[in-house]
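From the thread on structure requests for the teaching lab: each student submitted one protein with a one-line request. Submission from student K.M.:

"Model L-rhamnose mutarotase from Parabacteroides acidifaciens, tokens only."
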Amino acid sequence: MKREAFKMYLKPGCEEEYQRRHIAIWPELKKMLSDNGVCDYSIYWDKETNVLFACQKVKGEASSQDMGDNLIVQKWWDYMSDLLDVNPDNSPVSISLQEIFHMD
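Reply posted by the TA:
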């Protein structure tokens, strides 16, 4: 199992709504991610910069950021697009982060 991390950019003033939507994450999205090997998924918020830091474990090769061809993911992106900096397809602008240290 590999670990993946990336950052995204939350729009100012959207913190509470972003958290509210994730508390009520769609069951079909959660199932789709789990069925495709994504687990132990966390998102952290840096209040000073409004940067979101996400980390997840992945069984296989595809992280959640590689699943944009899935209709559920596309609908989630559309739903979240008013809260995040997004690309033209409404996928969140995300930057992959390289792991330089890990301790079990």
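TA comment: Strands lie at 2-9, 38-46, 51-58, 94-97. The longest strand covers residues 38-46.
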